[in-house]
Amino acid sequence: MPDEVKSGTARLAYPPSGQAIGGLAPSEARFWTGDYYNEGNGQEEIFDKAKEECGVFGVFGHPDAANLSYYGLHALQHRGEESCGICSSEDGTFHYHRGMGLVKEVFDRERLGALKGDRAIGHVRYSTSGSSKLANAQPLVFKYRDGDLAVCTNGNLVNEPVIRRELEEQGSIFQTSSDTEVIAHLIARSPKDLVEAVKDAFARLIGGYAFLIMTKDRLIAACDPNGFRPLVMGRLGDAYIFASETCAFETIGAEYVRDVQPGEILVLDKNGLREERFAPMERRAVCAMEYIYFARPDSDINQINLHSSRKRMGRQLALESFVDADIVTGVPDSSISAAIGYAEQTGIPYELGLIKNKYTGRTFIQPSQELREKGVKMKLSAVRKVVEGKRVVMIDDSIVRGTTSLRIVNMLREAGATEVHVRISSPPFMNPCYYGIDTPNPKDLIANTKTVEEIRKAINADSLYFLSKNGLMEAVGGHENEKNRGLCLSCFDHDYPTKVQFELAKATSCSCD
Can you tell me which residues bind [4Fe-4S] cluster (predicted)? Predict the structure, then answer.
C-alpha cells in the first residue's frame, strides 16, 4: 500500500520510494538518460523543440475505465514520455498506480487488472530540469475531510508561487513542487461543498490549465478562462470520456461531442452531466503551438483538423516565400504536413529527403560527448540518392535554439544537396511561455537575440523565412472576430493574454513540476 504523508489539511499519497520501475528493481533500471527511460528528457533532446508538458484522460461510467484510460494515454504519449499514471474508483475506493517511463512500460496486465471501477483519470508527463521524480507523477491522490481526491492537469499556473507562499504562511506543508498540489490545498481548506470549493480555487488561478478531478462519486473537468490548453469531451455508449486531444477518442472508439469551453466546469455524478461556469470567458487564447507542433495531426482542436491546418501553413509559407528548387522535404514527423502543403502550392515535388529512425529511444550505453554530438544522425538521416545534386527546400515547424537546424542543414549538404533553403511554418520563437510549454531561458532562444539573417548564417542555410503572424492566423482559421483569431501568440509577439509577474512566473515548468 502507498505511504501517506500528512500535508496540511490533506494527506498526499505516494508509492514507496523503493518501488520497482517497469518490472525492474531500482538498482537494475539504469538507462543512459538517468535512473529510468527518458529521465530529464527534453534537456538532452536531440531535436531542438519546445516541449508540451503533459496530457490528461478521463472516463466516467464505463466498467472498463482503467483499460480505456491505458489506451487513451497511449494515444497521448507524444504529450509526455517520462511518467504516467492512472487512478480508478470502485465503490468509493481508489486504486492507482504511477510510474516513470512510457505507458506500455509502467502498466502491464496485472497492474491494469488491479485498477477496478467504472471511472478513472490518467496522465502522461514530460519533465523539466530538476523535476525527474516519481513524487511529481500524476494523478496526485489526496485524502481530505470528504474522502479521497485525485487530480491531474495540463498547463501552468502563473501565480502559483504567490499562492504557495500564502498557503505555507498559513501552515500548509507541501510534499511536491507541483502546481497541482496547490489546487488540492485550496480545495481542502474551503468550508464549501466540493463543486463550490473547486470553483473558488479555480477563480484564484492565473494561467493556462485543463484539470480533471475525481472523488468517490464525481468527476470534474475544467479549462482556464482563456482556453490555453485543449480539453475535449466524448461519449462511448453511456460513458463520458475526456481527453487532451480527439485522437484518443479514435483509439477507443469514442465519439467526439464538443470542446470544453474556457472558464467552464463540467460535473459528472450519479445524476448525469452538469454544465456550469467558474469564470466568464476572457480573451480566447488557444496555444498556437498546439496547431503548429504539439498535437497529433489526426486530432482536432475547436473542430479544426491539425493536419489540414498545417498543410495550410505550408501553402501560406509558399505564397510568402517561394524559392526555386528541385525538391521539398519536411523534418519528420511534425513538419511533414506543412511540407506537403508547400509542395502542393509551388508544384515542387515533395520527397522523403529526411528519414527518422523510430527505434533509438532506449540505450544502455553511457555515451561520450562525441557520441552525443553525433546523436542527431542516430535519430535522423538524409537520403543521399534523393537530395544529392538537388536544391532542397527544408520545411520545419519551429526553431528554438537553432542547434538542430544547423545539424540538419549540414547533414543535407553532406548528402550532396547543392542548396538548402529553410522555411519555418511559424513566426520566430522569441519569448518564453508561462502557460505550460517547457521553453528555454530567453537568452537561449535564438530568435530572441538574433535577426533572421543572423539566424540564417548560424544554421548555414542558403535562405531562411519564417511564416508571418498574419499568415499563421489565416492558416489556422479559428474565430475571425476575436483577437489573434482566438490564438495565444505570446511566444512570437510577447503579448501575454494574462498578467504575468515575470520575476515570479515559471517559464520552464508546468503544473506537473
Answer: 287, 433, 488, 491
